[in-house]
Amino acid sequence: MPIIYNQIVYNDCQLGIWEISESFEEMYSKIHFFPGEKKKLDEYKSENRQLEWLSVRRLLRELRGKPTQIVYNDQRKPFLFNSDMNISISHSRDLTAIMLSKNKKIGLDLEYMSHNIEKVAHKFLNEDEFIVDDPSKQKFHMYIHWCAKEALYKLCDKQDINFRKNLTLEPFEPDECGEIYGWVDNKFWHDKFLMRYFTIKDHVLVYSSK
Known about the structure:
Blueprint: E1 3-9, E2 13-19, H1 24-28, H2 37-42, H3 47-64, E3 70-72, E4 78-80, E5 86-92, E6 95-101, E7 106-112, H4 135-155, E8 167-169, E9 177-185, E10 190-200, E11 203-209
Antiparallel strand pairs: 1-2, 2-6, 3-4, 5-6, 7-11, 8-9, 9-10, 10-11
């Protein structure tokens, strides 16, 4: 079974991770398509991107126990059709993650630690944030910051958020897993958020709820 993680977190949030090991044909054969979805899938020219799309639907079906349609608003924020349950989605390389909650706003991000993130760190880190001096931990520390800010961005509905100006993480020492705090400060929010993170198969995953 490609589900490699399925846990209840924050008491009422479900977090699941799917490792893509199937071929396109195997994944396609297991999907229930809602009207218009086959056309949407065909719009993706890359088979890897198609597999990501399919894996989201497959994982969601496993978590909910039934086919469920995903729809998006103008900011590309996902929702479940005819459901009051909130959803957050992320995928990177061979992993797909979904978080579900009936009572809380949620945000999730998953990133494979591959590229040279130091070159773009100035775009999302601000002068109040701390990165360790140890060169062997700096890349990992930056990835946690990036994922945490993506998770907050999704939780806060992707509205009026600049990663450097509006999102700030309190100083923390990076570990294999842990809790961190971040602030969102814009015209919609001035609030502090608890986030949790862990590593899995060379990925960093960060999630939060409110």
